[in-house]
Amino acid sequence: MIPGMERLAGLMQTALIAAFLLALGGAFVPGTVGHASGVACVVLLISAPVVRVGWLTVEWARTGDHRFALLGAVLLGVLATSGLLAFLR
Amino acid sequence: MNPVELAVAALITAAVGALGGLGGAILLVPILVLSGLSAREAAPLGLISVAAGSLAAAPHQLRAHLVNHRLGVSTEIIGSAAALIGALASGIIGQSTLAVMLGVVALVAAFFGARRKGIRNRPDPSLTIDDLGEHAGSLSGVYQLDDGEFVRYQANRVPIGLLGMASAGLIAGLSGVSGGFIKTPTTSEVMHVPVKVAAATTTFTVGITSAVALLVYEAQGRIVVSDAALVAGAALVGGTFGVRLQALLPPPLVRKVLSAVLVIIGVLLIVRNL
After folding, report:
1. Over the stretch B162-209, which tens digit does the pLDDT of each residue have?
2. Residue A74: which domain range?
3. How many structural domains compose chain A?
4. For testing contact with chain B, the best of A13, A24, A68, A88 (most B CBs within 10 A)
5. B244 contact A CB<8A
6. Measured between alpha carbons, how far is A80 from A76 in angstroms, rounded to an integer?
7. Cβ atoms of residues B182 and B164 within 8 Å
8. Residues B239, B235: Cα–Cα separation, whole Å
9. Does the interface predicted TM-score (ipTM) exceed 0.90?
10. Which domain holds residue B267?
11. B242 part of contact set with chain A, CB < 8 Å
């Protein structure tokens, strides 16, 4: 396996376990701690694919695949614009 | 629907969605609507399920080199932009209109699920494990069949494929179902990417699309954190289980059963809301 992809798979595995634990907290722990855990789970689910695209963009730029690094950057721009528009509206 | 029923529904739909390569929300959202939840309330839970299913599938699919990230990123630019437009517009569309739209979407998903084909590209004996994965600088790659043989593929007809991705993003943002039932057949049947690679790449991109729409829903105050956490936990387990089972069961059989369920759900939604 390509070392970079193995690292990304490991990162996603860690995010998966963390999201599951946070989801359990959000679903079953009462009060503000449970609420914070649920919010953190949602934030993690939203940010995981963004981090993945960011990681790929950097990896492509680093290995000289500039065309796809540019496309990755454009997608990150779309995501950032989406977040901005969502909260400004 | 009580919390136990919600968790069971999320777990089973995420597992079945991962098995069929369509995404669990296409089943979960109609079920939630039929159980009495409004379409506006069901949509964010559907997207939480999609995001969780995408994350659950990631480690396995990355290690199996099934995802073509270059194809996913290239097509997701227009998909995410369309999802944003759909999510922003979803607040101004009526309940029954959304429910009927979901019914139509379920029927369309059933149609595409039933007609999807198996392996299109032939194995190439000259390929080895060193060729496995996506290729730098292009929308091509090599993937491995269950019997160990390697298959070369190249994405074709990209502009038409982009139209499909835009439609999928718009529907995802509007209704909260994953656009996967459009994306996977578009990638496979229009762009001629092998079904397994198409499904894995779609699982990656629906995670991005759902992230965009969830941001909008969060800003609109439509995410109930406790319900979202329950659905996320169950969908993470279901998605992990489903993606493992995908390698064991014949996908055509799973897709046919899934299509039958979708037809029933779609007809019920349309009849009840017209």
Report:
1. 998 998 888 877 776 777 777 887 888 789 888 778 888 988 998 888
2. 3-88
3. 1
4. A68
5. no
6. 6
7. yes
8. 6
9. yes
10. 3-273
11. no
